[in-house]
Write a structure and sequence with these properties.
It comes from Gluconobacter albidus. This protein is of the alpha+beta class and 430 residues long. It contains eleven helices and 17 strands.
Length: 430
């Protein structure tokens, strides 16, 4: 493993994270997660376990402190001179969505590790502890619980959630935790993070949209994180019938009901945008039963997923009410039955204005062009902000979006983002 490093003491340039170590981390994560097309590291699965073990290995080689909490979140710390001061924190996650990319989450976790390794190698000791948290289970596609890792870290998880089955194998969160060495029996009693003992939390992440690409800027300063309201398992029940022998007035067509409901909500979205409000609406799943649906039958069942996001909590509630209204309307109009299923949601989070200004000032000193922007996607940083911790996010330019195998963050952009993060953490920790 390469240890080449350009460093200075505590001058403005500071210890420079090692690009070769960065390459090694991403290459190893690729080997761990590659599924033949993209990256698949399920939450509390073998791939996530191996990724955590990789970070543990590198941290130990650099003499960093390591601990795990009851939920197996990983904490890597470079001790400060005064260990009684509130700690500076950074971090992200290492699980992926099915067939995702190699940078979502991993870029932020790798950035924090690179910085702590660089500081340790250069002999730099901050005034206060600086800690990287590598959270578990951020991607709620596996367990339908938002920000599972960061919520467990703060003791915010209801014990009932431990019985939630994972989407791919049906095995409960409790059992998956036990299999990887976590201690779910300590939920509610184990030591957890105290927000008053955290100076700040700063998370680096790839941008998951096209804003930085369009602006031709490598780094974004995040102003806030959208919350969400979701129905992950909605079902529209109609009645299968012969496509040629059933006139429209006799039909109970699940697909037409779903199409009408989706278009009505889409019209609501356009109305919201026209009023200058900000949100997104996505139907990520819309499918008939492949075992029974066919070209010669009126479809009797439609599975549907609804995902609404906004930084405005009141708007999320308004749109949720519209979802329910539209479900009732299509029931009456199309003679179907709509089961929306459980609603899951996350709360919007505002980023700390002081840290945003610090990041902008440092970027200007470093000659980095940045833009301010919101995050449409959810992140563990939202949990920290919700607990009253001064929180900020830095986005790194990334082509082709996220949650797909084609994520394309360029290493020079990443290193620019890591450099800004290093300066920001060093300023806060000093």
């Amino acid at each position: 493993m390469s240890r080449s490093l350009i460093s200075s003491n505590t001058a403005a340039v500071g210890p420079v994270p090692d690009p070769e170590l960065a390459k090694l981390i991403f290459d190893r994560l690729y080997d761990i997660g590659f599924d033949g097309r993209g990256m698949t590291r399920p939450s509390y699965g073998e791939g996530e376990n191996r990724a955590h073990a990789l970070f543990d290995e590198i941290a130990r080689e650099h003499g960093l402190e390591i601990r795990r909490d009851w939920a197996s979140n990983l904490f890597i710390t470079l001790p400060g001179r005064n260990r009684n001061l509130p700690v500076v924190m950074t971090g992200s996650h290492l699980d992926t969505v099915p067939c995702g990319g190699n940078f979502d989450g991993a870029a932020g976790a790798a950035a924090g590790l690179l910085i702590l390794c660089a500081w340790s190698t250069a002999g730099f000791q901050p005034e206060r502890d600086t800690t990287l948290i590598v959270t578990r289970a951020e991607e709620s596609v596996w367990f339908p619980v938002s920000y599972l890792g960061s919520r467990t870290a703060f003791g915010l998880l209801d014990a009932d959630a431990l019985e939630t089955p994972r989407s791919d194998d049906g095995v409960t969160l409790r059992e998956h935790m036990q299999a990887c060495g976590a201690k779910p029996e300590e939920c509610g009693t184990a030591p957890v993070l105290d927000p008053t003992k955290i100076d700040c939390f700063v998370e680096l992440h790839i941008e998951q949209g096209p804003v930085l690409l369009e602006a031709d800027v490598p780094v974004g300063i995040v102003t806030g994180i959208c919350g969400s309201t979701r129905y992950r398992s909605a079902v529209i029940h109609g009645q299968y019938a012969h496509s040629g022998a059933t006139p429209r007035r006799f039909r109970s067509d699940a697909v037409m009901a779903g199409a009408s409901m989706m278009m009505a909500l889409h019209t609501d979205w356009k109305t919201v945008e026209a009023a200058g409000e900000d949100m997104t609406l996505t139907f990520g799943v819309c499918q008939t039963d492949p075992a029974q649906a066919n070209f010669a039958a009126v479809p009797g069942k439609l599975d549907l997923v609804i995902d609404i996001r906004s930084r405005d909590e009141a708007l999320l509630e308004r749109m949720n009410a519209r979802v329910i209204e539209q479900a009732r309307r299509v029931e009456a109009e199309f003679s179907v039955r709509v089961e929306l299923g459980p609603r899951t949601q996350s709360t919007p989070a505002l980023m700390d204005e002081t840290i945003q200004e610090q990041a902008k000032d440092l970027a200007a000193e470093m000659g980095i062009v940045v833009v301010s922007m919101a995050s449409g996607a959810g992140h563990d940083a939202a949990t920290f902000a919700g607990q009253g911790v001064p929180t900020e996010m830095l986005f790194v330019r990334n082509e082709n979006g996220s949650h797909n195998p084609d994520e394309s963050m360029e290493m020079p952009d990443f290193l620019v983002g890591v450099g800004l993060l290093e300066r920001l953490l060093r300023q806060r920790a000093s």
